[in-house]
Amino acid sequence: MREQTHASTVQQHESAEQPIAPVTLHHLGLKTARFKEMRAFYQTFLGCRPVLEIEGKVGFYTFDLAHHRLALFEDPSCTQAIPTSAGMHHLAFLHACVDDLMRVYQRLKRQGIFPRFGMDHGPNTSLYYQDPDGNLMELLIDNFGADAGKGLEFFSQFQSNPSLHGKPINPETYLAAWQQGATLAELHEQSFAGGFAEGAASIPQGPFSRQ
Prior knowledge:
Helices cover 33% and strands 22% of the residues. By secondary structure, it is an alpha+beta fold. It has two domains: 25-77, 2,3-Dihydroxybiphenyl 1,2-Dioxygenase, domain 1 (Roll); 89-204, Roll (2,3-Dihydroxybiphenyl 1,2-Dioxygenase, domain 1). The chain has a five-stranded mixed beta sheet with strand order 5-8-7-6-9. Strands 1-4-3-2 form a four-stranded mixed beta sheet, with helices on one face. β3 and β4 (70-74) form a beta hairpin.
């Protein structure tokens, strides 16, 4: 009986030490001295709407049924981040399919918001934007769809195979191919072979340094 009790106690302790994964990334909180500019950018960029705003202090915004996905805190003392600043490198938002990504790209372009650069990383194709404070925001799709295992397998080969480190893409030629009916698999095959690299914005050093 004592041995069983000890074994049960050990199992309970080991279980208590195991991390419990969050369900999802819930929201982004940013402080800024450019509150109105940042609010306007994210309302366009993410299509989010205000849930609660306290003028001159804070705003909470959402793009779904969550009470908020973005919080903006106004702080006039904020200074512009410099490329060597520690902190968040970028935040990524996943779209369900290439059709959605291309429609978002076109909508933002009509609003005068353009990606700083684009890349086919292999597991995903990404467009990188900057908000008014210089924060880097990524819009992406999974090139392997719902098969997350393929993405993990691809990443495991990165270190040993430099040729897998991704290719720059020109969003306009990528868009044109999509408009002509190319599937995601076809777009990925072409872009990862460098087929959309001509005219693509150069990838910042650092990596992806903020400027």
